[in-house]
User: Fold this.
Amino acid sequence: MPLADLGPVVTKAFSALPHAVAAELRHEQRPVAVPLNVHRLNVMWSNLRLLRAQQLGVPRDWDEFHATAKTLQARGVLPLAIGSSAGQRLSLFVNLVLGRAGRDYFERALLHADPRLLQAPQMLDLLAEFRSLKAYTDAGQVSRDWAGATALLLQGKAAFQFTGDWANGEFQKAGWQAGQDYDCTSAPGHGRLHYFEFDRLIFFAATDPKEVAAQRQLASLLLRAATSRQLAQIKGGIPVHRDADLAGFNACAQRSAADFNAGDEQGQLVLALSARLGESAYGGLRDALSAYWASDRMTAQQAQRRLMQAMSSRD
Assistant:
């Protein structure tokens, strides 16, 4: 089905969008979709109340994370809260790969499916470390979602969770203060790297002039900075406009926006695999990692072979 022509007003409004976002919304050089808001996916949520009580800090890299997790575990505290979905397991693996191996390796191995990297010892090491993280979780994960995992932090039962910035709303609803009761740093080893996805509304071509006019009006409304700001406050995440007013957004959103804008200017943002891989490759990757996490009998070597098979399927 052909895509809509949203007109010159929308085209002009695209100049206020981040480069990394606008580039994903064009077809044949013209805007065919509008963004709603941006979500940061590489967030490590930390229960600062619990860490202070244990006289521990927020880990900055994966070696520190393992050391902190083992200390917590030895003291009878659950280090890592996670839910049962394959998406949460994939997110944890992505955070590990980006923090351990870096952006270039991540792109070549998981986006472009470089067979030399997929079958190399480094991937085997990453898979083994991914499995080792399961030792910091609990058996109750099989019956909870991401919000249930966040609840463990709020109940003082767990120290860390890796999930998107939608968790920010759970902490705010509970009356927790960012930087005081909880923290929202990027995943270990990520620094200011911003791994993100964004919601978008795609418009298809219409023949009725009234419908065309309505499409353009809706697209123009959604592209206003004030609308983007309101949507982000309702749904979580950050406004999609570079110059959005962040008054009223908490420290987590402020940090995400600063890192996102800096990354956009430097060309250092990393768009989520779900937006870049075809469904066969993405689903295969997600399912292979989830099966490996779920099965204590599957070896890292077996998981590596399944990963290579999954990534060889390209839509």
In short: The mean pLDDT is 94. The beta strands are 26-27, 30-31, 33-40, 43-47, 78-81, 158-163, 182-186, 195-202, 238-239, 270-271.
